[in-house]
Amino acid sequence: MEFLLDYGLFLAKIVTVVVAVIAILVIAKAVGGKSGAAKGELEITNLTEQHKHTVEQLEHHLHDEAFIKARDKAEKKQDKEKNKTREKEIKKASKEGDLDSKREPHLFVLDFKGSIDAKEVASLREEVTAILAVAREGDEVLLRLESGGGMVHGYGLASSQLDRLKAAKLPLTISVDKVAASGGYMMACIADKIVSAPFAIVGSIGVIAQLPNFNKVLKKYDIEYEQLTAGEYKRTLTMFGENTDKAREKFKQELEETHGLFKDFIRERRPALELDKVATGEHWFGTQAHELGLVDEIKTSDDLVVEACKEKTVLAIHYVEKKKLTSKLAGLAGEAADNVLMKLIDRGQRPIV
């Protein structure tokens, strides 16, 4: 009995210490968060160096030591001569006040894996801003896009971020390895060139909105639902009220108007497309999309990156937002449930592209 009491006291001490440590960490995080620290930071990966390292690793298994030594010696000699020539060119350009012209061209690689509300646009905004701050003539941008679409305003803003690159006259290629449908295709058509994998899903130029209606269930249990509005069409279809034909007609009209804006947006950026043929809400695989003119070339993003590594310095740019400790401790399950509920309520009046 005495042993159990001692053991219980020992466990209580351990729990107290753990709780105290967690409390200190939470307080420290809260205080640190108020100090105005950066919300996030850029992660930059040199894909050219990464590719070179991969090739070197493989070659060590393909060739004997004598061959590797001879090749490395020849490459060092070649690099030395190249660096000397480049130093002379840079010095000359510096004297002439034209140093930027001697900077090696870069390919900036971005990734956008879009959700329903396109919340990833927050990171895209930071990435585009960073690129515009340093880009020079000869530089290009590759966006690896994956999205099945979502809320109109979210994907409209994402498209506007890509338009910033176009306004700066930076060549933009968008690569679709898996899917760029609906709002995803809205983003893709901003590009100077759209490249697709053979079986990527492309298109779906249409608009949809859907929501459940629980009015009959409420009536069954004698539950009254009241909704007060000012303005005839402040609310059309609802989840809990009794929907009318007039409300349905108005909502359908809004969908048609959104579809019209969507088509105008694509027509302006890809005028060669036969919109009546492709703006039906259907989607196609990459090879079919190429035949229809929805994409310009059949390749994967890997092909584009490897090709660019031969001529340019290829940098992958990724803006990472710092997550609050409280968000991590709360757990992803609860957050996901809240998001689903809020999106369900919100989606009733927000078209999806």
UniProtKB/TrEMBL annotation:
One of the GO BP terms on file: proteolysis
Transmembrane segments: 7-28
Pfam families for the chain: Peptidase_S49 (PF01343), Peptidase_S49_N (PF08496)
GO molecular function: serine-type endopeptidase activity
Record's GO cellular component terms: plasma membrane
NCBIfam families (UniProt xref): PRK11778.1 (NF008745)
Protein name (database record): Protease SohB
UniProt organism field: Vibrio ouci
